[in-house]
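User: What would this chain look like folded?
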Amino acid sequence: MDQQMSPWEFYERGLVLKQVRMFHPAIDDFQTAASDPQYAGKAYGEMGTCLRAIGHDEEAVVVFQQAAKSPMVSSADKCHILYQLGQTLESLGRDAEGLEIYGRISASDQEFLDVAQRIQHLRSSKSGQFSWSQGWWKAWMKEVTSRCQAVFLHDPSVLDRTGQWIGPPAEQSAGRRR
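Assistant: Here's the prediction, encoded as structure tokens.
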């Protein structure tokens, strides 16, 4: 059955396998999907994430580099791939290389996640490990905000339905307590 699957189907199945933490089969599917130039960048990026999850950081570096070189990767996806590459290099203690990668990201998007703080930290630090207290909250909030904006732009009625998920409006609740 696998021989009849398209690269897109391998990629999608890899995402599902990754989601349920079946990293080795996911890596196999992403490798197959990466044979198609249309999916190579994203597939290599996902493969790198899986390799990091199983502790194969050196292999992840190579795969993230392949993903970043893929001609079909959008500039937004490339920033995310490079960010993961930078984190991986940083975790390996390869600070100079990580700094170079963060610099490339900053050149295309100065506000990307916590890249500015990582650059500042790596330039001023001898230890190299990033302190998550620096910029973590700002980066997380930026990511949450951008995802919420995407949802609301896609379906503006989400706000109207929010009350259905979290219970009755405050006015109704206050009225019941009296």
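The chain is about 75% helix and 0% strand. If you want, I can go into more detail on any region.
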